[in-house]
Design brief:
Length: about 500
């Protein structure tokens, strides 16, 4: 791997370090703050389970973050991660538990603005909604769990020393679960911007399992998070552990469990598949703020106690940090990209063109999108998504959904199924039937992603999407992930 690539990855490592320094407090801060667990013990457990969660279950939440804006050049990824890391570091220095989710979302929006890329509104709304849902859900869970714990301890009538021992064990187990959930949910914040421009390649261990480029990225990020936990998380742990509301050891356990459940709910692909297979509403897989979850859980307990003991000045400082973090990250990213491009002569994004060529218009018509109003835009090529969006905006009667479909179909993503890509294709990365379909297209070139998808579907029914519905959501999502793999492997012009 080139030295330049390693240099660009350092900002992701810095962001991982910053996340570990800040967000480890959300897992073990209450336990350390109540002196039930030593900082060293908490840091070791947290680091180990963070890495496991990141590698095993990190892909789910990262997918939504990637849809918000796919940073497609390594220098751009470097600056997005660096901007988010600087924002988190500034708040960590102030002893405030801030959201790395908000920081990286702000940085991605900054990159989108600089590169004239459209910010995916559906993904943004989904992420923003969790900034409200997350603390409310954590508060509700902590209130119910706290009441149950109080009832159970009253009925159990354990000796004080026995209660203390069980609480200590409970905090360790809850912390391990919380660390796993934090790694699974928030690793996308650390390395998500590098997925589209990953310097790693997939490889297989003796044909037993595939270690994807994304998992390799997540492992590197998790190690950086662990270093942050070990070296710089103690101050924020003190703020969370006792700075907002004084907590008893049992209340500390409730906070950790409530926070961990919320992060797990928004990161578990297995849970999403289970709910979808039974026709139940699914929970969106998005990186949520662990800081918001733990603060919501703490406030839930405070509400049960009548709101007594809440330190409003501390809460106000935390809320202020949440508001300014994405703004700082976006501003730093935009300015930093300007300097990288114009002073250091780095390509911070790969321009993507859009065309309303006859094949695109035919594709839209076959999908039921009326194209009669496009008029003179037919046949034109645009140098960015924003340029095409502005041109479509001049057409009256064209709603936002149709605009989105047109822009998606018009995107030029050249793919060539060549020998080099076939050699790199890892056994086990695709099912046998899907891999055979890809090989059958050797030598073919495609200008659009949808054109490749159509040909693959013609070659094998395993590449065909199933009817939209909750029961098929997991299957179709996995299909899209496999198509992403093929497009990334055979992309040309980069």
């Amino acid at each position: 791997m080139e030295v330049t690539v390693l240099l660009f990855l350092t900002s992701g490592l810095f962001l991982g370090w910053a996340l570990g320094a800040n967000d480890a407090a959300n897992v073990f801060g209450t336990a350390v703050g109540t002196r039930m667990i030593s900082f060293t013990t908490a840091a070791i457990i947290c680091s180990v389970f963070l890495a496991l969660g990141a590698v095993v279950s990190g892909a789910g939440a990262a997918h939504t973050l990637g849809k918000l804006g796919a940073v497609n050049a390594l220098p751009g990824s470097f600056m997005a991660a660096l901007s988010a890391a600087l924002a988190v570091y500034m708040m960590t220095k102030a002893g405030l538990p801030v959201s790395t989710t908000q920081a990286i979302v702000g940085a991605i929006i900054g990159w989108n603005l600089f590169s004239s890329t459209i910010t995916d509104s559906d993904s943004l709304v989904k992420i923003l909604s969790t900034w409200v849902i997350c603390p409310v859900l954590a508060a509700a869970i902590s209130m119910g769990l706290y009441k149950f714990s109080a009832w159970f301890l009253h009925r159990a009538k354990w000796h004080l020393l026995r209660t203390d021992a069980y609480t200590r064990l409970g905090l360790i187990l809850a912390g391990a679960f919380g660390s796993y959930s934090l790694g699974a949910n928030n690793i996308g914040n650390v390395m998500g911007v590098f997925i589209s421009s990953s310097p790693f390649t997939d490889f297989s261990f003796a044909g037993l399992f595939t270690f994807s480029s994304t998992q390799q990225l997540f492992l590197v990020g998790a190690l950086a998070i662990g270093v942050g936990v070990m070296t710089y998380s103690k101050r924020v742990m003190v703020t969370v552990g006792g700075g907002l509301v004084p907590l008893s050891p049992v209340a500390a356990w409730v906070v950790v469990v409530s926070h961990s459940i919320v992060l797990f709910l928004f990161a578990s692909q297995g849970l999403e598949a289970f709910l979808a297979s039974h026709g139940l509403p699914t929970i969106p897989l998005v990186p949520v703020s662990s800081s918001q979850a733990v603060v919501g859980a703490v406030l839930g307990i405070a509400i049960i106690k009548g709101g007594r003991g809440i330190r409003w000045r501390v809460l106000g400082g935390i809320s202020f940090g949440w508001m300014v973090t994405p703004v700082i990250a976006a501003a730093v990213c935009f300015v930093g990209l300007f300097f990288l491009q114009n002073v250091f002569d780095q390509k911070v994004f790969h321009p993507i063109s859009y065309t309303l060529s006859p094949p695109v218009v035919e594709k839209l018509e076959s999908d039921g999108v009326a194209t009669g109003s496009l008029g003179e835009l037919r046949g034109q090529t645009f140098d960015s998504a924003v340029a095409l969006k502005d041109a479509l905006g001049a057409i009256s009667g064209l709603d936002s959904d149709r605009k989105g479909l047109i822009i998606t179909a018009a995107k030029i993503e050249p793919v060539t199924i060549g020998d080099t890509g076939l050699e790199k294709m890892v056994a086990g990365a695709l099912s046998t039937a899907r891999a055979i379909a890809v090989v059958s297209l050797a030598g073919r070139q495609f200008r659009h992603r949808w054109a490749l998808a159509q040909e693959l579907a013609n070659e094998s029914e395993t590449w065909r999407e199933k009817a939209a519905g909750k029961e098929n959501k997991a299957y179709n999502k996995a299909l899209i992930a496999d198509l992403d793999y093929v497009v990334r492997l055979f992309a040309t012009g980069r």
